[in-house]
Amino acid sequence: xxxxxxxxxxxxxxxxxxxxxxxxxxxxxxxxxxxxxxxxxxxxxxxxxxxxxxxxxxxxxxxxxxxxxxxxxxxxxxxxxxxxxxxxxxxxxxxxxxxxxxxxxxxxxxxxxxxxxxxxxxxxxxxxxxxxxxxxxxxxxxxxxxxxxxxxxxxxxxxxxxxxxxxxxxxxxxxxxxxxxxxxxxxxxxxxxxxxxxxxxxxxxxxx
Length: 208
Known about the structure:
Number of strands: 11
Structural class: alpha+beta
Shape: globular
């Protein structure tokens, strides 16, 4: 038996969009179940995101602390952001986010993992990159606003982040998945065996 997620689409009898926001919307589908019954399914429609686990030569991860109003917490996170336009190349978006949020650039990029963040209620797909060979970006710093104006930056050893994740002290999805995937990759075939930065991403197809 092969353990692998597979695409599948059940019949939708009707669909509507009761709410449209600035970046996301809510969709209601009438979905036919295997026994023939029809049920309502409400979910958030999301453009997709990228996140960057930026690892420096001292084995520290670049993290930032930002207020997240829905959960009423300041969370430690890795740089991340939305895919601004449909079909946007995720590597280009990841480079942009690393520059805008940390004013850092990277020489070596790999795909660390791809995830659906909350597939029971949202179609958001996130590609998490591993970025190495870090250096200060050139040019002016990106002008921040709103929650980002209060953002803190730090570089934290990988082992300390793993400890925080397992202790229930760190909760951001991309940080948790990214850090534990990093450790798993090292214990397996190594970081250089990770997928290339332009690897296909069926959840959010793009042009290279």
